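User: Okay, second chain of the day. Same drill as before: sequence in, structure tokens out.
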Amino acid sequence: MAYTKTNWVNGGPPALSAENMNKIENGISTNDTRLTTIEGSLTDTGWTESGITGKYTYLNVLKYRVKNGVCYVIFQTSGGAAPTLPTGTWTILGTLPVGARPSLTVYSGCGIRSSGNGEVQVGSDGRIGIYPGISYQIWAGTVSFPVG
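Assistant: Same drill. Structure tokens below.
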């Protein structure tokens, strides 16, 4: 319910009364409850690998962070002895834990050396997949989405 402001005038109406004072007290209490709820939802896990399962063997980095209801994922596959990721198919990099998953599948571009020629997806089941557009060993990218 919207708050209705009282216009106070020195020596005039409205009267200083329990009803008007309680209106002030109730407004303060309601706002305190709302702020406490908002503060409780502001969280930050920091960058972590904790809880990621089924990791792709050739990863340099696969981390996520949930901050204030938004999940951020970063990844980079290895070079050197790592096999070239196959084109035209999804490779699963890992699966996020339940509190870091989107409600719907999200997609983002990814690439090699600033070339946007691949795609990354995070499914509502938490699986992080990469779909290379060209054959190459090192892939990197980021994706962010609201959790839930």
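The longest strand covers residues 59-67.

User: Thanks, on to the next one.
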